[in-house]
Amino acid sequence: MLSLTCTTAIKAVIYLASRIESGERSGIKEIAAVIDASEHTVGKLLQTLVKADIIKSQKGPAGGFYLTVKQKKLPLLRIVEAIDGKDVFRRCGLGFNKCSSAHPCPIHDDYKGVRDLFENMCRNRTVSDLCLPVNEGLAYLLG
Out of 2, 47, 53, 82, which residue is the most buried by the measure of CB atoms under 10 Å away? Predict the structure, then answer.
């Protein structure tokens, strides 16, 4: 359902959120290493997230990427929409262009239910909600 770039963006934001307490900013190389992603991909998606006001960046020797307390309260949906677009929760599970209730694909009804539940979770879970289990050592950003 989500692109690889989107899942990478979510991991990067969770990582940055986990560093709010220390006040430290993180560079592209550090973030890419922690979440096991390409520096090129991480660099591009971080700029997209800055433009969408999901994260902040600061230039200079003490610069890097970071989140504010307010941004930590954003719903996961903001990241998903910034990277994969607003229609991600309307796409066909098999990738058909003309899938609908009137013209369904073979998995339409089942996939629609799963997709709607996932959209609801993205609307209701915040960056902070996802960061908490990582900070407590109950969840991980690496597979």
Answer: 82
